[in-house]
Fold this sequence. Notes:
Blueprint: E1 10-15, H1 29-46, H2 51-56, E2 59-70, E3 79-89, E4 93-102, E5 107-120, H3 131-141, E6 147-148
Parallel strand pairs: 3-6
Antiparallel strand pairs: 1-3, 2-5, 3-4, 4-5
Amino acid sequence: MRAQNGVESFAHRCRVxxxxxxxxxxxxxxxxxxxxxxxxxxxLRELGFAQSAMAEQNTLFVVHSSEAxxxxxxxxxxxxxxxxxxxxxxxxxxxxxxxxWRERDATLLxxxxxxxxxxxxxxxxxxxxxxxxxxxFVAADGAGNQTIAGD
Length: 151
């Protein structure tokens, strides 16, 4: 899937397990947020920034706000593709746009946006996104072609 700026979106693949489903046999709505969290974490890892190493450098990312829209249910054993692309890169925050797709039939199941703040691990006060990570996002997500603003 191509993003609007022509750059290939990052995608994390996962499978629906029994523990992800509710009494109706479909993925419980909050689990889509977990799938998207994992995709953001894997996005950082792919760029060379493990969250455990970032915490050792007194840097964490926390979700400030989220928005999700649900379109169709996922079910047990479905293989999912979860995208994570930076839509907006600010001094101390990132806005991700994410989608969850069922691979079998390329059905969009859920989509959302997440404002993720960069904070100091010791005080949870805002801090600037490390310059190396900022540069990695600009290079990988084409964030230079998207909204770049100061906080």
